[in-house]
Amino acid sequence: MLSFLLLYHLQKPEDTKKEALVPLSCICYNIIMTKIAEPVTIHRKPGAIHSFFALKFHDGDSDKAKVEAIESALNEAGITITVIARDVEKWGQATIPEGKNLMIDYAFPAMKQCDCNIIEFSEKGVGLGINAGYCYAIGKPIFVIAKTGSDISTTISNLATKVIFYDEPRDLINPFKQIAKELSATKTN
Fold this sequence. Notes:
It is built from six helices and nine strands; from the N terminus they run E-E-E-E-H-E-H-E-H-E-H-E-H-E-H.
């Protein structure tokens, strides 16, 4: 973010001497330097498991922190992730070019590149259902994660390869270690 500080100061419009200049107001302008969104290219190590990660995202630090905590657990389990809010939208700092669609032009191609799809479904969202339906149609395994006690719809449950409930993101490590092991075995067969 680039900030400009502008000072407006003339005691009276007719005063032009330096000593007559008095700060009257201070205005700070923030100009957000936006980036143009680019398609996701996944760079991975041979044999690594990579997942598309979807959640109902709200702008703000709490959702960013949630993504980072879950990502940390998944990384420890041997899974890396693509997150559209981070990797394409740059946490709200990138703009989607005119004529492009976030889901069709960015999310769907990224889903195709991934080994599986992980959907955080503690909060329902139409986009999450579209995500699950698309991944199911292209044959990607779908792992639904949700906070313990969350209501998982029948539709999402039926599309999911597995539903995993958790209290803390670290609870995801062991189940996803097993999932990573199974996915690695199917990649080599």
